[in-house]
Amino acid sequence: MDASTTGTSIKDKAFITVNAMMQALIARIRRIAPKARLVRIAGESGTGKERIAWLLHACSGRKGAFVAFNAAGVDDQFFASTLFGYEKGAFTGAIKARQGLVEKAHGGTLFLDEIGDLSPTSQTKLLRLIQEGEFMPLGSDKPKTADVQIVVATHRCLRERVIEGTFRKDLYFRLDSHHIDLPPLRQRRDDIIPLVKHFAQKTAKKFKLSRPEIGQEVWDLLTGYDYPGNVRELQTMVEVAMVDGNGRIHADTICDKMARNRMLMDDSENEASSIAQALKKCSTLPTFDELNQMLFHETLRRTGGNQARAAEILGISQSAVSQRLKKIRANSPHR
């Protein structure tokens, strides 16, 4: 790492940037981390929200663990049982008590990603944890407390969710203490070259490939692209190209990957357009849950049941897609 690159390297993790805006943001993180007990991170998918959350933890001086949880697509019981734990017999299958993530993060940092997807019930439980420092394991009538730094993130606009009535106003204002906005990669293009070099060297080491070779044509392609998937998309692109070319990144591999990603984005936009047309024909508007279900089923139909691709389009994890499918099948009268 050269002197012009800002990085924090603890336990082999680093934040790579030469961008002035990002360097100022990291300097602010270093200032607020030791004192901030609640931080909200906003930014598009793939901008590095979890890495920023980890950086907050690393700079906080807290000795406990960094524990991360993605709330996209999870139901109330899964949210509560995973975060707060449960007592033996709390529900079918709870054959013994289990500690939740909040307790595991005691003395450290709890990172909750995609909180914009939480239901009102789960939002209420999160608000209690934030305001009172208390939580209730499922099946217990005794509240517990935990000393945790809470970092939350979302790629959604929470202000719009409040206006829609799908996000609690009191929780929104409570989360508005320390707010970090992560810019998309297209707004910090000077970071593309150092990131490519970093990912290429990392991939070469991991797969024991020859020293990375990147020609000018490839650099022109990589620095001229908008990266709708941000840093995550760039990292995947470099890793695939490195492995395909045995250390040499070929322009045709990059072009093919960019074309596929553009097609994926077009599918996602067409999805929204298709549902908008369907809504125009409805005499009454569907509920938010019904709209989510409509989008979920249509995405699976268009992807031919490919859960990995459906997860990419919906912006949730593949495990969340799998869990939702299991729930749908369990509730089906034809099982």
Overall description:
This is Sigma-54 factor interaction domain-containing protein. Keywords: ATP-binding, DNA-binding, Nucleotide-binding, Transcription, Transcription regulation. One of its GO terms (biological process) is regulation of DNA-templated transcription. The chain is α/β, with parallel strands linked by helices and 335 residues long. It has two domains: 20-183, Rossmann fold, CATH 3.40.50; 186-260, Helicase, Ruva Protein, domain 3 (Orthogonal Bundle), CATH 1.10.8.60. It is built from 14 helices and nine strands. It has helices at 20-32, 49-60, 76-84, 101-104, 120-132, 158-164, 169-174, 192-207, 216-224, 230-244, 251-280, 288-302, 307-314, 318-331; strands spanning 38-42, 66-70, 109-113, 134-135, 144-145, 149-154, 178-181, 213-214, 248-249. It has a five-stranded parallel sheet. Strand 4 and strand 5 (144-145) form a beta hairpin. Helix 12 (288-302) crosses helix 13 and helix 13 crosses helix 14. It is globular and about 65 Å long. Mean pLDDT is 86; it is low at 1-12.
CATH architecture of the largest domain: 3-Layer(aba) Sandwich
Task: Tell me the overall shape.
Answer: globular
Distance between the termini: 56 Å
CATH topology of the largest domain: Rossmann fold
| Pattern of helices and strands | HEHEHHEHEEEHHEHEHHEHHHH
Give the fraction of residues assigned to helices.
40-55%
CATH top level assignment of the largest domain = Alpha Beta
> Uncertain segments of ≥5 residues (pLDDT<50)?
1-12
**What's the Cα radius of gyration?**
22 Å
On the 0 to 100 scale, the average pLDDT is: 86
Overall tally of structural domains: 2
CATH H-level superfamily of the largest domain: P-loop containing nucleotide triphosphate hydrolases
Fraction in beta strands? 5-15%
Largest sheet: 5 strands, parallel
Overall number of strands: 9
Biggest sheet strand line-up: 2-3-6-1-7
**Helix- and strand-based class?**
alpha/beta
How many separate helices? 14
Protein name: Sigma-54 factor interaction domain-containing protein
Pfam families: AAA_lid_14, HTH_8, Sigma54_activat
GO molecular function: ATP binding; sequence-specific DNA binding
Organism: Desulfosarcina ovata subsp. ovata
